[in-house]
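Format notes (please read before filing issues)

Several people have asked whether sequences and structure tokens are stored in separate files. They are not. Every record keeps both together, in the order shown below: the sequence lines, then the token lines. Line labels are part of the format and must not be stripped during preprocessing.
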Amino acid sequence: MAWIQIRIRATESTADAISEHLMDIGCPSVTFMDTKDTPIFEPQPGEIRYWAETTVIGLFEANHDMQAVVDYLKVQPELQEQFHYKIEQLEDKDWEREWMKNFQPIQFGERLWICPSWLDVPDPSAVNVMLDPGLAFGTGTHATTALCLRWLESLDLSGKTVVDFGCGSGILGIAAIKLGAARVIGIDIDQQALDASIDNAERNGVADQLEVYLPENQPSFEADVVVANILAQPLRELNEVILSLLKSGGELALSGVLEEQADSVASCYEHKVTLDPIALEGEWVRISGIKK
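Then the structure lines:
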């Protein structure tokens, strides 16, 4: 089964209430994470303590109406003054366990490999991206990332400008650079994602070709290629924003979309994009095409 999660910024005093709100609207699993790696010393018996800055994580099935979740949460007293959240896909756990069990490189298309940093690359003459497996989204094991990587590998990116919209770990942008792109612009609402993208780009020796921005800080430009691997709802809501980043004749790919959501997402872009047949992998799809 496919899953998504909502990450909500909380405090020691609000974390428990936010958890209860999530459970009230049918969230099957809530966990807490330290936002800033602050140690908590052993509590007194019966005492429950949270970090001063806590991230509350709610897990939902991927077809859940997350806009309804957001609408419910933002009117709760604990979140009315400050509601910071991020919705993201979870790695496919079966794929992830297989990756973690065997620690093997994965090939995408004919030329591209994603390789754990401590293993020898299988083909030194291939395009090799060094990225360690883990729980953070964007290791190449999720079907949507695989769909986007194969699409990028199929393009001629030589000398082109590529936008990685919702860049996460930076895997798509780094792969684009290694496949010949001259410039990659990573955009994400999460500063930690931008930091991770830069770190991974440095590990791969391509940091000088990667720029990263929060949406409110990004410059104006029109790219040759735009890839957005996020989720169906923001892809629908941000269609004009995403299309504005792509020049006429440019290539577009969208993923993070379940098969049952594909038509509704495609309909938001077909007025400006000549769409290809939808690509399917498991429950997930990729929507691609050329801007008119």
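For reference, the curators noted about this record: The first strand starts at residue 3 and ends at 11. The first helix runs from residue 15 to 24.
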